[in-house]
Design brief:
Blueprint (H helix, E strand, L loop, with lengths): L2 E5 L6 H14 L4 E4 L6 H4 L4 E6 L2 E15 L5 E7 L4 E7 L6 E4 L23 H9 L4
Parallel strand pairs: 1-3
Antiparallel strand pairs: 1-7, 2-5, 3-4, 4-5, 4-6
Length: 141
């Protein structure tokens, strides 16, 4: 198993990502995330791997990668469509500097899932981004 990590471009928080994906799933299923480069190790990625989303400078959530297919951008340029499980899983926040494209992420290096319903996890996305960042840097969230 192998994961991917990618910057979430556009949505500024987890709620915005969830809303965008809900609309995409409703209007153009299956749920996909597009990227220019095709993962060469796709068999490992689709064998239980997830895409970890960096939102607002932190790894915040993940989604299981169910498959990959070739698609094309509007201009005809080929791209990879990662087929995603619609379930968004919160992970322990981890600061991450910007990078281009995606990277492989080994399972032992991936942030752990946050237990659903854990009091500290509820409502974090409603905090101002600067406060969330400060609390995470202090390892309080």
């Amino acid at each position: 198993m192998l994961h991917l990590i990618k910057l979430c471009v556009g949505p500024k928080d987890v709620a915005a990502l969830a809303a965008l994906q809900t609309e995409r799933l409703r209007t153009d299923p299956p749920l996909r995330a597009w990227t220019r480069m095709f993962p060469k190790r796709i068999d490992e990625v689709t064998n239980g791997g997830s895409i970890f989303w960096v939102i607002g400078g932190f790894v915040r959530v993940r989604q299981r990668i169910l498959g990959l297919r070739e698609e094309a951008w509007d201009d005809g340029t080929p791209c990879a469509a990662l087929l995603l499980d619609p379930d968004i899983v919160a992970v322990e926040a981890r600061p991450m500097k910007p990078f281009q494209g995606w990277r492989y992420l080994k399972p032992e290096e991936a942030p752990a899932d946050v237990a659903r319903g854990r009091p500290a996890a509820r409502g974090l996305d409603r905090l101002p981004p600067a406060l969330r960042r400060d609390l995470a840097e202090l390892c309080l969230i």
